[in-house]
Design brief:
By secondary structure, the chain is mainly beta. The chain contains two helices and 16 strands. It is elongated.
Length: 317
């Protein structure tokens, strides 16, 4: 069952001068038209995720209840109450951040064709609202006029987080009947056969991922290993070619605590004919070498989804 916590996030609402007219010594009024407004949306996922970690570790209140040391949390939704933060730009940017978990950088300009009159002997400026929070900078369409730059203000909103799950290891599961295939084995992304030994005889062999919520136990690398003799040890599957004869085949993996990119999901990628590439597995970032190397048959790979995360090192008491 998924675990959720909510943390406060503090951002800053500030104003950027678009133009300023000083008519102090000019008795005649002037008009300003066709103002260029900035369109800015910048997301740094690594900074955003690290700020979540730091907030969970340092916020001593009810928000952090339920947070677990060693776990990591990803954003689910943002609850904003401020009039400015309820803007479409903010909602769209945080929606993208929650959904895609990828960096984004958009910087263009649009034209504001409204006319502004600056009276004689007067001063007037036009200012555009911006919002910044850890890993996020967004320009808003709201503007203000005045004789000086409006003061910046801190704004706090609630960010709902879900505890993340990571692949810790992969196990080989054997059956004598395909109907006994484990329901939680790795699926082939195009719906093809999930039996690793398909076409070679021997045991029906399926790959089962084991999950953890502990970042330091998360898998960060996986490779295919083919040997003439049997291999035993930690971080290696049993023989994937059991009963099929020929060389021994394994998946060997490790968990590097110094690598922030962790494996979160996996699948099989099978193809006859030409060898597939990662482009044939949309949404996946890592691919092993061919499990069937040297024994002909289909091309068969394991592909992984990854996420850059930071484990919680402490929880306020």
């Amino acid at each position: 069952m998924s675990k959720y916590i909510t943390i406060p996030v503090t951002g800053k609402l500030y104003w950027v001068e678009l133009w300023f007219r000083d008519n102090s010594t000019n008795p005649k009024g002037t008009q300003v038209v066709d103002t260029e407004m900035k369109v800015v949306r910048t997301v740094s996922i690594s900074r955003f995720n690290e700020s979540i970690k730091n907030t969970v570790e340092t916020t001593k209140n009810s928000f952090s209840v339920g947070a677990e040391v060693g776990a990591s949390y990803g954003p689910v939704s943002a609850t904003v109450k401020s009039e400015f933060l309820a803007s479409k730009e903010i909602q769209d940017t945080y929606g993208y951040t929650v959904r895609e978990q990828q960096d984004m950088s958009v910087q263009t300009t649009i034209k504001d064709s409204r006319g502004y009159n600056v009276e004689g002997h007067g001063k007037l400026g036009l200012y555009q609202a911006f919002f910044s929070a850890p890993g996020v900078v967004v320009s808003l369409t709201q503007t203000r006029t005045g004789g000086e730059t409006p003061a910046a203000q801190d704004v706090t909103f609630d960010l709902k987080l879900q505890e993340l799950q990571f692949i810790k290891e992969i196990q080989a599961v054997y059956t004598d009947n395909p109907n006994d295939r484990p329901f939680d084995c790795l699926h082939e992304i195009t719906g093809q056969n999930e039996d690793i030994n398909s076409g070679f005889g021997g045991k029906y062999c399926y790959l089962k991922p084991i999950f953890t919520n502990q970042v330091n136990q998360a898998m960060t690398q996986c490779r295919v290993r083919v040997d003439k003799s049997a291999v035993r040890g930690p971080n290696i599957t049993d023989d994937l070619a059991k009963g099929a004869g020929g060389k021994f085949r394994y998946l060997q993996f490790n968990q590097d605590s110094n690598t922030h990119s962790k494996f979160t999901a996996a699948a099989l990628l099978r193809r006859a004919g030409n060898a597939p590439t990662l482009k044939d597995a949309p949404g996946y970032a890592v691919m092993t070498t061919d499990i069937n190397e040297g024994r002909k048959g289909d091309w068969l790979y394991v592909v992984f989804q990854t996420k850059e995360v930071f484990g919680i090192e402490k929880v306020p008491s």
